[in-house]
Write a structure and sequence with these properties.
Helices cover 39% and strands 12% of the residues. The protein has 12 helices and 8 strands.
Length: 370
């Protein structure tokens, strides 16, 4: 994995480099009182005969300026995807498509044609990465309710940003915590209201009312089954904090006028966006066999030490060792020597587990696109 370097942003405050040269620099994310040190880098076309990675290693020239915390956070989200593309370029692709997903995807698409409403569950930490690229084509004009589950794992700022984003798109979004039941009552009332509208239309056509069918869909381990159990106030669907527990379609009744379809997590057969795949791995929304713990943890470290509300100081407090550089792989190695007798996999698993448990604070890995 290459040393952590910031991918050059599309716009830069730095003077334009000479034609044919690319200049970039790592960003040190040490948070200062009231002010944050912000480094940016400029970009140009690649030098003939040289690779982009080589230029990143050989050419490092940057300038620094102080910016307030709000501006620094906005800039962080603007260039994060470019950084992730650079960091994941040399890694083994993250792919996971177990047999039960392939088997049930066809059945699910057939059932979706019969749905009156579809409730799509996403991970509130990564709402875009947990949106199936074919979902829009599968649903057509059917009504969809988007639920961002695990709202307790993101900050108020993250929540407000996503609420505004979906509101501007004209999409109603619900926030929930399937484990504790937060937001489930509101979702239940919404589902009931949809049921009443469907049967009102049936009565006008001279048809008898019937239970309204609602499909619960989403990526693995985003909390579909837990949310259904909270809605029903009893454990009807198997649920566990790991992907791939639900392996077949299952109908459950919510009262007398609503039927819910719990479905296995669905993923694209091939994940072309590896920045999204890395986020799925970090958030435990994809099978562990699909990725290398050390590589994923190293990228998480690089993301968090640059995050304005986390920074390298959070790692010093947590593990009692210094963060000497911006290279996440070096920190994983250092932590492995400090706590796990050189076992990098154990060190990486500890970092990932600590993030998933909120030990660095509850922060999202995505913000809405600007």
């Amino acid at each position: 994995m290459a040393a952590a370097s910031w991918a050059a942003p599309a716009t830069s405050f730095a003077p334009s480099p000479a034609p044919g040269r690319l200049k970039a620099a790592p960003l040190t994310a040490r948070t200062l009182p009231q002010r944050v040190l912000f480094r940016a880098a400029s970009e140009s076309s690649m030098v003939a005969g040289g690779t982009l990675l080589g230029l990143y290693e050989k050419e490092r020239l940057s300038f620094s300026q102080y910016a307030d915390e709000e501006s620094n956070e906005e800039r962080y989200w603007e260039i994060l995807d470019a950084d992730l593309r650079h960091w994941t370029r040399s890694l083994r692709p993250v792919q996971w498509y177990p047999g039960h997903i392939a088997k049930t995807e066809k059945e699910l698409k057939e059932q979706l044609r019969l749905m009156d409403v579809v409730i799509e569950i996403r991970d509130a930490r990564i709402p875009l990465s947990t949106s199936h690229p074919k979902m829009d084509s599968w649903l057509g004009n059917r009504r969809r309710i988007i639920v961002l589950n695990r709202e307790d794992m993101i900050s108020t700022e993250d929540r407000n940003a996503w609420a505004t984003y979906f509101a501007n798109q004209g999409t109603k979004v619900f926030f929930s915590n399937g484990q504790l039941g937060m937001g489930t009552m509101k979702l239940g009332r919404m589902a009931k209201s949809v049921a009443s509208v469907v049967n009102t239309k049936r009565r006008k056509k001279g048809l008898l009312p019937r239970p309204v069918r609602a499909g619960i869909v989403g990526y693995p381990n985003v909390g579909k089954s837990s949310l259904i159990n909270r809605l029903l106030k009893r454990r009807m669907c198997p649920a566990a904090p790991r992907p791939g527990v639900t392996r077949e379609l299952r109908w459950v009744h919510f009262g007398t006028d609503l039927e819910l379809l719990d479905s296995p997590g669905i993923l694209p057969m091939r994940i072309s966006d590896q920045t999204a795949a890395i986020k799925l791995a970090i958030c435990d929304d994809i099978g562990e066999r699909s990725y290398d713990f050390a590589d994923v943890a190293a990228i998480l470290v690089q993301m968090l030490i640059r995050h304005p509300s986390v920074g390298s100081e959070a790692f010093r407090r947590r593990y009692r060792i210094d963060v000497d550089c911006d290279c996440g792989k070096m920190f994983v190695t250092k932590l492995s020597l400090h706590l796990f007798n050189g076992d990098a996999s154990q060190a990486a698993f500890r970092i990932l587990s600590d993030y998933r448990k909120g030990k660095f604070g509850w922060v999202a890995l995505e913000r809405p696109p600007t």
